[in-house]
């Protein structure tokens, strides 16, 4: 399961873990403060924001070549570009500074930060182990020619699977990014699995936008999203050659966030090439 869903509301599990860690840290800090000390609630929230800011800055610096030509992308947080370790370091340094400045805050703040960080680390590791133990679903889909294909037909090489729809604004924004990556990484097979739309409407959209995407597949019932546990669009999944889930990204991909996600795969060599899908499954056959 990649998202937590209530009705039409869906949130990525890793985001839910962050919010839960903040809530737990606040609760523990408040309980400790009741036995003596200062309530650290406002400081914990400030530290949370500091950590997120540092995580974003760390990501931008690490992938600066992707932001250099369009600096406004730096403040576009929709790509989910954050590095955890700079955020964690900034949060801990901030906690030490506040504890040094305000002695009554030390014990409650220390207890809250330690509890929240421990919960986040253990929960994130558990989620990562669980997700990477999941396999490529054996789902029946249709290709652009209307023929039935099995998702497992594409197994045998690394896969990038994008779940999308034309009515989804972030899906539309990230399509040129994925198209460019498809051209630049022939060692990977990109599958574009449309969720619940007709072939005609998708074909019209791609033509009007001038997009040339190989391996366009159609999932009329949204069964792939249900199988992988994500009811949010767009969702991008990264599978190894043996069908093991290596990672996922919920929400819009930028060039930088996609580059980081593709680090799950080995760097290609000139002799490396993607597994060619069955001809009946290709939109260009």
Structure notes:
Strand 5 (159-164), helix 6 and strand 6 form a beta-alpha-beta unit. The chain has helices at 13-34, 41-62, 64-67, 84-101, 106-131, 169-184, 199-209, 223-228, 255-261; strands at residues 3-6, 9-12, 140-143, 148-150, 159-164, 189-195, 216-219, 235-239, 245-250. It is elongated and about 70 Å long. It has 2 domains: 3-131, no CATH class; 140-281, Glutaredoxin. Residues 269-273 and 279-285 have low confidence and may be disordered. The protein has 9 helices and 9 strands. Helix 1 packs antiparallel against helix 2 and helix 2 runs antiparallel to helix 4. 34% of the residues are buried. By secondary structure, it is an alpha+beta fold. The strands form 2 sheets. The protein has a 7-stranded mixed sheet with strand order 4-3-7-6-5-8-9. A two-stranded antiparallel sheet has the order 1-2. 46% of the residues lie in helices and 15% in strands.
Helices and strands in order:
Elements (H helix, E strand, L loop, with lengths): L2 E4 L2 E4 H22 L6 H22 L1 H4 L16 H18 L4 H26 L8 E4 L4 E3 L8 E6 L4 H16 L4 E7 L3 H11 L6 E4 L3 H6 L6 E5 L5 E6 L4 H7 L24
Parallel strand pairs: 5-6, 6-7
Antiparallel strand pairs: 1-2, 3-4, 3-7, 5-8, 8-9
Helix pairs in contact: 1-2, 1-5, 2-4, 4-5
